[in-house]
Design a protein that fits this description.
- By secondary structure, the chain is mostly helical.
- The protein has a domain of about 55 residues.
- Helix content is about 65%, strand content about 0%.
- The chain is rod-shaped, with a radius of gyration of 36 Å.
Length: about 90
């Protein structure tokens, strides 16, 4: 494979420009890496919270209605009024 003098200059110039751009872009790439790390952390926390609540609700199961919790007409039982006690010391 024969590389001509002009092609060698073109490849060398491209490598020099690429090296200079990589030196100048390093802070930007570092910023983007930190930003992606932060976004990944937030998504992981949200996913773990969702999975935790999903499994807790599945393990708890459905609540069965008991006959003592309702009245004959299907409504809730009547609320008893609290007893008012006056304590004079």
């Amino acid at each position: 494979m024969n590389i001509g003098k002009d092609k060698f200059k073109l490849i060398a110039g491209g490598l020099i420009v690429l090296a200079a751009a990589s030196l100048m872009m390093q802070p930007l790439l570092s910023y983007l890496a930190g930003l992606s790390r932060l976004i990944t952390f937030i998504v992981t926390i949200l996913l773990m919270a969702y999975l935790f609540t999903f499994f807790v609700t599945k393990m708890r199961g459905s609540k069965r209605s008991t006959s003592s919790g309702t009245t004959s007409n299907g409504g809730p039982p009547p609320v008893e009024e609290p007893i008012d006690v006056d304590i004079d010391a």
